[in-house]
Amino acid sequence: MRQNPTLLIPALAPLYRLGEPVFYALLRATYGVIMVTHGLPKLLGQSHGSMADPMAASINLIQNVLHLPMPGLIGLLVALLEGVGGLLLILGLGTRLLAAMMGIQMLTIASILGPTWPWIDRGIEYPVLMACLSLYILFRGAGHYSLDHTLSREL
After folding, report:
1. Which of 29, 62, 66, 113 is the most exposed place for a label (fewest CB within 10 A)?
2. How far apart (Å, rounded) are the C-alpha atoms in residues 117 and 87?
3. Cα separation of 21 and 126, whole Å?
4. What are the φ and ψ backbone dihedral angles of 48, each rounded to 5 degrees?
């Protein structure tokens, strides 16, 4: 059960109570938007940032760095997690499962970059932050403004 922390301005307690679920939904949706912007270019075969072919780059990473079997299939699953999973995260549907899967993806990315610990030019700070955000969403759940919440009330 949550305890009420000491508020900076106690008179604003009603505003904090009103804003918390709204801003948590915004946080969850923002994470989803970020994931969609990485997944859609892979699924649509479009360039993304400095990558002319992000799907080919993902497949190359899976095959030549991770040495996993079926790199094309795994690349497609990653793109679907980012693109479709990101959209579902925005809506708050299947939130805990998606957060767990995205957290595993972010920890994998961080561990691949980890030996050099670069903090600039595609450093690990972003996947580490996203992994922590995934864990928070996993344990917190979808929140009030989500399809998970709406559907669980209707059951």
Report:
1. 66
2. 30
3. 24
4. -145, 115
Taking only the tens place, the pLDDT of each residue in 109-124 is 888 877 676 666 667 8
Place of tokens 């790199």: 71
With b for 16 or more beta-carbon neighbours within 10 A and e for fewer, the 63-101 pattern comes to: beeeeeeebeebbbebbebbbbbbbbbbbbbebeebbeb
Inter-residue contact 7 to 13 (CB < 8 Å): yes
User: CB 45: neighbour CB atoms within 10 A?
Assistant: 10
Taking residue 123's Cβ as centre, other Cβ atoms within 10 Å add up to 14
Whether the CA torsion 18, 146, 102, 72 is positive or negative: it is: negative
Label residues 5-41 b or e (16+ Cβ within 10 Å = b).
Answer: eeeeeeeeeeeeeeeeeeebbeebbebbebbbebbbb
Q: What is the pLDDT of residues 82-102, one digit of tens each?
A: 999 999 999 999 999 999 999
The answer to whether 25 touches 145, Cβ cutoff 8 Å, is: yes
Three-state DSSP at 124 gives: coil
pTM of this prediction exceeds 0.90 = no
